[in-house]
Amino acid sequence: MKPIVVGIIGAGRIGRLHADNLRVMPCFKLKSIAEAMMSEELLTWAESRGLASVFAEGEDILNDPEIEAVFICTPTDSHASWIGRAARAGKHIFCEKPVSLSSEETSSALQIAEEAGVLLQIGFNRRMDPSFRKLQQLVRSGELGSPHIVKITSRDPQPPGEAYVRSSGGMFMDMTIHDFDMARYLVGAEVAEVYTRGANLVDPMFGRCGDVDTAVITLTFASGAICVIDNSRKAVYGYDQRVEVFGPLGSAAADNCRPTTVEVSTATSVTRDQPEHFFLERYNQAFIDEIAAFARSVRLQEPLICSGRDGQQAQLIAEAARESHLTGLPVKLTAVTGTGARVSEMRTM
Fold it and tell me: Are 163 and 209 in contact (CB under 8 A)?
Protein backbone atom coordinates (compact mmCIF):
# COMPACT_ATOMS: atom_id res chain seq x y z
CA MET A 1 0.00 0.00 0.00
CA LYS A 2 1.04 3.61 -0.46
CA PRO A 3 3.28 4.74 2.41
CA ILE A 4 1.64 6.90 5.05
CA VAL A 5 3.56 10.14 5.57
CA VAL A 6 4.08 10.60 9.29
CA GLY A 7 5.32 13.20 11.74
CA ILE A 8 6.20 12.56 15.39
CA ILE A 9 5.50 15.10 18.13
CA GLY A 10 7.75 14.33 21.10
CA ALA A 11 11.25 12.86 20.76
CA GLY A 12 11.83 11.28 24.14
CA ARG A 13 12.47 7.57 24.64
CA ILE A 14 9.16 6.36 23.23
CA GLY A 15 9.15 8.88 20.37
CA ARG A 16 12.58 7.73 19.25
CA LEU A 17 11.53 4.10 19.53
CA HIS A 18 8.62 4.72 17.18
CA ALA A 19 10.86 6.72 14.86
CA ASP A 20 13.31 3.84 14.50
CA ASN A 21 10.46 1.42 13.82
CA LEU A 22 8.72 3.70 11.33
CA ARG A 23 11.91 4.23 9.36
CA VAL A 24 12.27 0.55 8.46
CA MET A 25 8.60 -0.15 7.69
CA PRO A 26 7.62 0.27 4.02
CA CYS A 27 4.06 1.23 4.93
CA PHE A 28 5.33 4.48 6.49
CA LYS A 29 7.41 7.46 5.45
CA LEU A 30 8.70 9.36 8.48
CA LYS A 31 9.11 12.94 7.32
CA SER A 32 9.65 15.04 10.44
CA ILE A 33 9.85 15.12 14.20
CA ALA A 34 9.18 17.88 16.72
CA GLU A 35 10.60 18.27 20.21
CA ALA A 36 10.18 21.31 22.45
CA MET A 37 13.37 20.46 24.36
CA MET A 38 15.73 20.98 21.44
CA SER A 39 19.35 19.92 22.00
CA GLU A 40 22.53 19.12 20.13
CA GLU A 41 22.14 15.50 21.18
CA LEU A 42 18.70 15.38 19.56
CA LEU A 43 20.00 16.89 16.34
CA THR A 44 22.84 14.41 16.25
CA TRP A 45 20.41 11.54 16.79
CA ALA A 46 18.11 12.84 14.02
CA GLU A 47 21.04 13.23 11.63
CA SER A 48 22.10 9.64 12.29
CA ARG A 49 18.60 8.56 11.21
CA GLY A 50 18.55 10.72 8.09
CA LEU A 51 15.87 13.01 9.51
CA ALA A 52 16.37 16.44 7.98
CA SER A 53 13.19 18.01 9.38
CA VAL A 54 13.47 18.57 13.12
CA PHE A 55 11.22 21.24 14.63
CA ALA A 56 10.85 22.81 18.04
CA GLU A 57 7.11 23.31 17.49
CA GLY A 58 4.62 20.53 16.85
CA GLU A 59 2.49 22.97 14.90
CA ASP A 60 5.06 22.82 12.11
CA ILE A 61 4.14 19.17 11.65
CA LEU A 62 0.40 19.83 11.80
CA ASN A 63 0.73 22.59 9.20
CA ASP A 64 2.43 20.29 6.69
CA PRO A 65 -0.23 19.20 4.16
CA GLU A 66 1.81 16.16 3.09
CA ILE A 67 1.71 14.62 6.57
CA GLU A 68 -1.30 12.30 6.94
CA ALA A 69 -0.78 10.99 10.45
CA VAL A 70 0.93 12.11 13.63
CA PHE A 71 2.37 10.15 16.52
CA ILE A 72 1.86 11.94 19.83
CA CYS A 73 4.70 10.98 22.19
CA THR A 74 4.79 14.04 24.42
CA PRO A 75 4.31 14.08 28.22
CA THR A 76 0.90 12.77 29.26
CA ASP A 77 -0.48 16.12 30.41
CA SER A 78 -0.25 17.42 26.83
CA HIS A 79 -1.78 14.44 25.01
CA ALA A 80 -5.37 15.69 24.95
CA SER A 81 -4.36 19.11 23.64
CA TRP A 82 -2.30 17.60 20.83
CA ILE A 83 -5.08 15.17 19.94
CA GLY A 84 -7.48 18.10 19.55
CA ARG A 85 -5.06 20.13 17.44
CA ALA A 86 -4.09 17.19 15.25
CA ALA A 87 -7.73 16.21 14.70
CA ARG A 88 -8.66 19.75 13.69
CA ALA A 89 -5.75 19.66 11.25
CA GLY A 90 -7.23 16.53 9.68
CA LYS A 91 -4.45 14.16 10.73
CA HIS A 92 -4.96 10.57 11.79
CA ILE A 93 -3.55 10.07 15.27
CA PHE A 94 -1.53 7.49 17.13
CA CYS A 95 -1.24 8.59 20.76
CA GLU A 96 0.71 7.02 23.57
CA LYS A 97 -1.18 6.03 26.72
CA PRO A 98 -2.91 7.35 28.71
CA VAL A 99 -5.07 9.76 26.73
CA SER A 100 -4.80 12.29 29.57
CA LEU A 101 -4.81 12.64 33.34
CA SER A 102 -8.37 14.05 33.34
CA SER A 103 -11.64 12.37 32.40
CA GLU A 104 -12.99 15.65 31.11
CA GLU A 105 -9.96 16.28 28.89
CA THR A 106 -10.13 12.76 27.52
CA SER A 107 -13.84 13.06 26.69
CA SER A 108 -13.26 16.35 24.93
CA ALA A 109 -10.33 14.99 22.91
CA LEU A 110 -12.28 11.93 21.80
CA GLN A 111 -15.23 14.06 20.77
CA ILE A 112 -13.03 16.37 18.69
CA ALA A 113 -11.41 13.41 16.94
CA GLU A 114 -14.78 11.84 16.23
CA GLU A 115 -16.24 15.05 14.86
CA ALA A 116 -13.17 15.56 12.67
CA GLY A 117 -13.55 12.07 11.23
CA VAL A 118 -9.96 11.05 11.94
CA LEU A 119 -8.71 7.76 13.36
CA LEU A 120 -7.37 7.74 16.91
CA GLN A 121 -5.39 4.73 18.13
CA ILE A 122 -4.05 4.52 21.68
CA GLY A 123 -0.68 2.89 22.29
CA PHE A 124 -1.59 -0.09 24.46
CA ASN A 125 1.00 -2.17 22.66
CA ARG A 126 0.56 -5.26 24.85
CA ARG A 127 -2.56 -6.13 22.86
CA MET A 128 -0.20 -7.04 20.03
CA ASP A 129 2.12 -9.22 22.09
CA PRO A 130 1.96 -12.67 20.41
CA SER A 131 1.40 -14.55 23.69
CA PHE A 132 -1.34 -12.24 24.94
CA ARG A 133 -3.02 -12.26 21.54
CA LYS A 134 -3.07 -16.05 21.68
CA LEU A 135 -4.79 -15.90 25.08
CA GLN A 136 -7.38 -13.51 23.71
CA GLN A 137 -8.00 -15.75 20.70
CA LEU A 138 -8.50 -18.74 23.00
CA VAL A 139 -11.12 -16.82 24.96
CA ARG A 140 -12.90 -15.59 21.84
CA SER A 141 -12.96 -19.08 20.33
CA GLY A 142 -14.71 -20.43 23.43
CA GLU A 143 -12.02 -23.05 24.00
CA LEU A 144 -11.71 -22.09 27.68
CA GLY A 145 -15.34 -21.17 28.16
CA SER A 146 -16.37 -17.76 29.47
CA PRO A 147 -13.53 -16.50 31.75
CA HIS A 148 -14.03 -16.98 35.47
CA ILE A 149 -10.66 -15.75 36.77
CA VAL A 150 -7.88 -13.73 35.16
CA LYS A 151 -4.56 -13.23 36.94
CA ILE A 152 -2.13 -10.56 35.76
CA THR A 153 1.33 -10.06 37.25
CA SER A 154 3.21 -6.94 36.18
CA ARG A 155 6.37 -5.96 38.04
CA ASP A 156 9.08 -3.58 36.88
CA PRO A 157 12.78 -4.44 37.31
CA GLN A 158 13.59 -1.13 38.95
CA PRO A 159 11.68 1.97 40.08
CA PRO A 160 11.60 5.19 38.05
CA GLY A 161 13.08 8.45 39.30
CA GLU A 162 11.21 10.94 41.46
CA ALA A 163 10.79 13.54 38.72
CA TYR A 164 9.10 10.97 36.51
CA VAL A 165 6.85 9.73 39.31
CA ARG A 166 5.63 13.24 40.09
CA SER A 167 4.58 13.87 36.47
CA SER A 168 3.34 10.38 35.55
CA GLY A 169 -0.08 10.40 37.18
CA GLY A 170 0.92 7.67 39.63
CA MET A 171 1.23 3.90 39.46
CA PHE A 172 -2.39 3.20 38.52
CA MET A 173 -2.41 5.72 35.64
CA ASP A 174 1.12 5.12 34.42
CA MET A 175 1.83 1.42 35.03
CA THR A 176 -1.29 -0.53 35.96
CA ILE A 177 -3.29 1.11 33.18
CA HIS A 178 -1.67 -1.39 30.81
CA ASP A 179 -3.05 -4.20 32.96
CA PHE A 180 -6.50 -2.62 33.09
CA ASP A 181 -6.56 -2.55 29.30
CA MET A 182 -5.28 -6.12 29.12
CA ALA A 183 -8.01 -7.31 31.49
CA ARG A 184 -10.73 -5.76 29.30
CA TYR A 185 -9.05 -7.13 26.17
CA LEU A 186 -8.98 -10.68 27.52
CA VAL A 187 -12.35 -10.85 29.26
CA GLY A 188 -14.27 -9.01 26.54
CA ALA A 189 -16.55 -7.27 29.03
CA GLU A 190 -16.64 -4.05 31.01
CA VAL A 191 -15.44 -3.62 34.59
CA ALA A 192 -18.24 -3.12 37.12
CA GLU A 193 -16.22 -2.70 40.33
CA VAL A 194 -12.65 -1.93 41.40
CA TYR A 195 -11.03 -2.63 44.76
CA THR A 196 -7.43 -1.69 45.54
CA ARG A 197 -4.92 -2.34 48.28
CA GLY A 198 -1.71 -0.35 47.90
CA ALA A 199 1.45 0.05 49.95
CA ASN A 200 4.89 1.67 50.05
CA LEU A 201 7.33 -1.22 50.41
CA VAL A 202 9.99 -0.42 47.80
CA ASP A 203 11.00 3.22 48.31
CA PRO A 204 9.60 5.94 50.62
CA MET A 205 10.00 8.34 47.69
CA PHE A 206 6.73 7.04 46.25
CA GLY A 207 4.92 7.91 49.47
CA ARG A 208 6.36 11.44 49.40
CA CYS A 209 4.93 11.76 45.90
CA GLY A 210 1.51 10.60 47.08
CA ASP A 211 1.88 7.32 45.22
CA VAL A 212 2.32 3.60 45.94
CA ASP A 213 4.93 1.15 44.71
CA THR A 214 3.14 -2.13 45.52
CA ALA A 215 -0.50 -2.95 44.84
CA VAL A 216 -3.11 -5.65 44.37
CA ILE A 217 -6.23 -4.66 42.45
CA THR A 218 -9.36 -6.76 42.07
CA LEU A 219 -11.63 -6.08 39.10
CA THR A 220 -15.14 -7.49 38.96
CA PHE A 221 -16.64 -7.53 35.47
CA ALA A 222 -20.24 -7.10 34.44
CA SER A 223 -20.07 -10.72 33.24
CA GLY A 224 -19.19 -11.85 36.78
CA ALA A 225 -15.57 -12.64 35.92
CA ILE A 226 -12.92 -11.62 38.45
CA CYS A 227 -9.45 -10.32 37.61
CA VAL A 228 -6.62 -10.00 40.13
CA ILE A 229 -3.68 -7.75 39.23
CA ASP A 230 -0.50 -7.52 41.27
CA ASN A 231 2.08 -4.80 40.69
CA SER A 232 5.48 -3.91 42.07
CA ARG A 233 7.91 -1.21 41.06
CA LYS A 234 10.89 -3.45 41.79
CA ALA A 235 11.39 -7.11 40.90
CA VAL A 236 15.09 -7.85 41.43
CA TYR A 237 15.07 -10.76 38.96
CA GLY A 238 13.81 -8.85 35.91
CA TYR A 239 10.69 -7.66 34.12
CA ASP A 240 7.93 -9.94 35.39
CA GLN A 241 5.00 -10.16 32.96
CA ARG A 242 2.65 -13.13 33.36
CA VAL A 243 -1.02 -13.70 32.59
CA GLU A 244 -3.39 -16.60 33.25
CA VAL A 245 -6.99 -17.04 32.11
CA PHE A 246 -9.12 -19.67 33.85
CA GLY A 247 -12.54 -20.78 32.63
CA PRO A 248 -14.99 -23.68 33.01
CA LEU A 249 -13.37 -25.62 30.15
CA GLY A 250 -9.73 -25.08 31.07
CA SER A 251 -7.00 -22.52 31.61
CA ALA A 252 -4.20 -20.94 29.60
CA ALA A 253 -1.16 -19.00 30.75
CA ALA A 254 1.50 -16.78 29.19
CA ASP A 255 4.87 -16.92 30.94
CA ASN A 256 7.75 -14.45 30.98
CA CYS A 257 9.87 -14.02 27.88
CA ARG A 258 13.55 -14.87 28.33
CA PRO A 259 16.63 -14.29 26.15
CA THR A 260 16.88 -18.06 25.56
CA THR A 261 14.89 -21.16 26.45
CA VAL A 262 17.95 -23.04 27.67
CA GLU A 263 17.55 -24.76 31.03
CA VAL A 264 20.70 -26.03 32.75
CA SER A 265 20.32 -28.97 35.16
CA THR A 266 23.15 -30.10 37.40
CA ALA A 267 23.52 -32.02 40.64
CA THR A 268 23.15 -28.79 42.64
CA SER A 269 20.69 -26.64 40.70
CA VAL A 270 18.34 -26.14 37.78
CA THR A 271 18.71 -22.71 36.19
CA ARG A 272 17.45 -20.72 33.24
CA ASP A 273 17.75 -17.14 32.00
CA GLN A 274 16.12 -14.32 33.91
CA PRO A 275 13.16 -12.57 32.24
CA GLU A 276 13.85 -9.90 29.63
CA HIS A 277 15.21 -6.78 31.30
CA PHE A 278 12.43 -4.24 30.59
CA PHE A 279 9.59 -3.25 28.29
CA LEU A 280 11.75 -2.24 25.32
CA GLU A 281 13.08 -5.79 25.08
CA ARG A 282 9.95 -7.64 26.23
CA TYR A 283 7.55 -5.86 23.92
CA ASN A 284 9.82 -5.04 20.99
CA GLN A 285 7.70 -6.93 18.45
CA ALA A 286 4.46 -5.64 19.93
CA PHE A 287 5.59 -2.04 19.32
CA ILE A 288 6.19 -2.88 15.65
CA ASP A 289 2.94 -4.80 15.24
CA GLU A 290 0.78 -2.09 16.81
CA ILE A 291 1.88 0.55 14.32
CA ALA A 292 1.57 -1.91 11.44
CA ALA A 293 -2.04 -2.38 12.57
CA PHE A 294 -2.46 1.41 12.62
CA ALA A 295 -1.29 1.53 9.01
CA ARG A 296 -3.87 -1.08 8.01
CA SER A 297 -6.60 0.92 9.75
CA VAL A 298 -5.60 4.09 7.87
CA ARG A 299 -5.14 2.49 4.45
CA LEU A 300 -7.43 -0.56 4.51
CA GLN A 301 -10.12 0.64 6.96
CA GLU A 302 -9.47 -2.27 9.33
CA PRO A 303 -10.87 -1.71 12.84
CA LEU A 304 -8.48 -0.05 15.25
CA ILE A 305 -6.82 -2.52 17.61
CA CYS A 306 -7.16 -0.03 20.47
CA SER A 307 -9.51 2.90 20.01
CA GLY A 308 -9.83 6.14 21.88
CA ARG A 309 -12.76 4.62 23.78
CA ASP A 310 -10.56 1.72 24.87
CA GLY A 311 -8.09 4.25 26.18
CA GLN A 312 -10.86 6.09 27.99
CA GLN A 313 -12.15 2.94 29.67
CA ALA A 314 -8.69 2.00 30.95
CA GLN A 315 -8.25 5.53 32.28
CA LEU A 316 -11.59 5.39 34.13
CA ILE A 317 -10.57 2.12 35.78
CA ALA A 318 -7.26 3.71 36.80
CA GLU A 319 -9.11 6.62 38.39
CA ALA A 320 -11.38 4.19 40.24
CA ALA A 321 -8.37 2.21 41.46
CA ARG A 322 -6.82 5.32 42.95
CA GLU A 323 -10.14 6.31 44.53
CA SER A 324 -10.43 2.87 46.09
CA HIS A 325 -6.86 3.07 47.40
CA LEU A 326 -7.51 6.45 49.01
CA THR A 327 -10.83 5.48 50.59
CA GLY A 328 -10.21 1.81 51.33
CA LEU A 329 -13.57 1.02 49.72
CA PRO A 330 -14.64 -0.71 46.51
CA VAL A 331 -15.65 1.65 43.70
CA LYS A 332 -18.46 0.67 41.37
CA LEU A 333 -18.24 1.66 37.71
CA THR A 334 -21.88 1.87 36.78
CA ALA A 335 -21.76 3.80 33.53
CA VAL A 336 -19.92 6.17 31.27
CA THR A 337 -22.17 9.13 30.53
CA GLY A 338 -22.54 10.87 27.20
CA THR A 339 -19.87 13.34 28.26
CA GLY A 340 -17.54 10.52 29.25
CA ALA A 341 -17.70 11.25 32.97
CA ARG A 342 -17.60 8.25 35.27
CA VAL A 343 -20.68 7.57 37.36
CA SER A 344 -19.39 5.80 40.45
CA GLU A 345 -20.26 5.14 44.01
CA MET A 346 -18.29 3.94 46.99
CA ARG A 347 -19.75 1.15 49.01
CA THR A 348 -18.73 -0.59 52.18
CA MET A 349 -17.57 -4.19 52.23
Answer: no
Helix (H) or strand (E) holding 29: strand 28-34
Q: Which residues contact 260 (CB under 8 A, 6 or more apart)?
A: 273
| Beta-carbon contacts of residue 290 (< 8 Å; ≥ 6 apart) | 121, 123, 124, 125, 127, 128, 305, 306
Query: For the sheet containing 53-55, what is the strand order?
Result: 53-55, 28-34, 4-9, 69-72, 92-95, 120-122
- The Cα 110–Cα 68 span in angstroms is 18
Q: Is residue 6 exposed (0-12), middle (13-18) or buried (19+ Cβ within 10 Å)?
A: buried
pLDDT, tens digit, 9 for 90 and up, residues 87-128: 999 999 999 999 999 999 999 999 999 999 999 999 999 999
CB neighbour list of residue 268: distance below 8 Å, 6 or more residues apart: none
| CA separation, residue 190 to residues 35, 196, 215, 228 (Å) | 37, 17, 21, 15
Residue type, 324: S
